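Annotated sample (chain length 327).
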Amino acid sequence: MLILIRVFLLVATTLYQAIACWFEDRKLPPGQMFDVGGYSLHLYIAGNTNPTIVLDHSLGGIEGYLLVEELAKLARVCIYDRAGYGWSNHSPHPRTSNQIVTELDTLLTQAGIEPPYILIGDSFGSYNVRLYAHRFPEKVIGMVLTDGLHETEMLKMSFQLQALKLFFISGFVMSILGSILGIIRLMRICKIFEVLKPELGKFPQHLLNSIKRSFCRPKHWITMSREMLNLSVSGREVRIANQFGDLPIVNIKANSFLKPSLWTVFIPLRGANQLRKQMHIELLKLSTNCTQLQASKSGHFVWVDQPDVIIDAVKIVLNKVAPSRPG
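Output written by the structure step:
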């Protein structure tokens, strides 16, 4: 009897997840869908002042929605969901920076978004925007890197940090099952996201919905796993994107990889922070016109912990490129 009850609960939660996703998918996305080669990506545009800010999110994140309204006060903002996240379709291609950059440029071209661009790359997204700026230098007039990665240090991580990487991947794989069974959706309903990350409570619910919706879908966690498994490949691809002359760049450095808590005692936080320290030293060498801002109250998730620093960084770049702005 107990086995039958468990089977019934599994079937019921899976069916509920499928029905909930079906109803959500019938709603129009906030932006538009554009074909990039047999599959479509979602692009959301806000604001209308040149130049255009283009955001590339962290690994597994679509956190740009949290600041879209503030950034739109400064310039036109383009937020897109990488293939596999949000409203975007799954991509049959490897999830590496080179492929992601190709998809992004195709998307901007298809959408008729003319350069110049200021690129914002958060964490893994810093790989992608650097490679984009290298491949299309005529289109980019500035960059903001939010607690970004640098391949020199990432490609020689210690055994402890490699183990931490595998731990995260295993969590992503378990979350695939959790999303299929509707467990992630139940966490959303019970506002567990806000319990785990209380800082989310300061953002309007309509901005959070786009993010939490994505995490409820198996394709989100599958894509996270694919991107993480290809992280070293992306690191090798971005090695060529290390010399940007006097391109205005603002590098934001968080205070710590994670804010110290009870559960962080189980991870090599000191090693992770030492790795980050070396990465930021390398990131400051990308341009002769590179400024570093310290997010002193933030962990790695600067978009949530200290979003005002990102706004300040964009203002710095906009001031530096002011002569390039029309009118």
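Annotation: The CA atoms of residues 51 and 325 lie 6 Å apart.
Annotation: Strands lie at 32-35, 40-46, 52-56, 76-81, 117-122, 140-146, 249-254, 290-295.
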